[in-house]
Amino acid sequence: MEKDFEGRIALVTGASRGIGYQIARQLGKRGAHVIAVARTVGALEDLDDDIKAAGGEATLVPVDLTDFDALDRLGAAIFERWKKLDIFVGNAGMLGVLSPIGHIKPKDFEKVMAVNVTANWRLIRSLDPLLRQSDAGRALLLTAVQAQTRTAFWGLQSISKSAVEAMAQTWAHESLKTAMKINLADPGPTRTGLRAKAMPGEPPENLPDPAEVATDLLELVKAEVLETGMLYDRVSKEWVSPS
User: Fold this and answer.
1) The domain 9-240 is classified under which CATH number: 3.40.50.720, 3.40.630.30, 3.90.1150.10, 3.40.50.1980?
2) Is the pLDDT of residue 201 over 70?
3) How would you write 5-43 as a 3-class SS string?
4) pLDDT attached to residue 198
């Protein structure tokens, strides 16, 4: 496998399963040192084994993204060890409940917003100075089509992912005079546990595997990518404006 990420330091959230696992796995196999962030220790250890078997290296960070103080410490720890960060993939996210907006329980609303929005903001706050130290800092935040369609009963996805898109675009506009490029990606329907929860009757064999999706998304964090403040629609293979 080509080592096209050799020497890069990459942080991936939600790295214990699905698309995040495959992004972290492929980054490690392609030469990056992966900082893998997720709650599930066992799955992170499996990821570590996969990366090491391919001759790569990973640092495991078993943490709940709602532990915001831990996210602050993470940035400091990365600075102490590497002084920079080259790639940030904000993959972790929650579906929450599919429900009319007026029926969503406050605790469900607050949990989804904490994971999907606040955690990404805390990570941006913690990692932005490190990405600025890279010669080609790249950030990719994952979104969903509901941010654009405002689909009925998908309010938690629509609201939280709309906020993620606004946050990423604002960050990109604030970083135009730097070497950083900050973009969004909608991976589209993928064979993941989150998709199965949302669409339990959907035949999984009709959906692309997370490994296939991850391969496409990794093209968006290469140093050669010059787009910023844009959204990549993986299904159409097109860059679009998220607004």
Assistant:
1) 3.40.50.720
2) no
3) CCCCEEEEECCCCHHHHHHHHHHHHCCCEEEEEECCHHH
4) 59
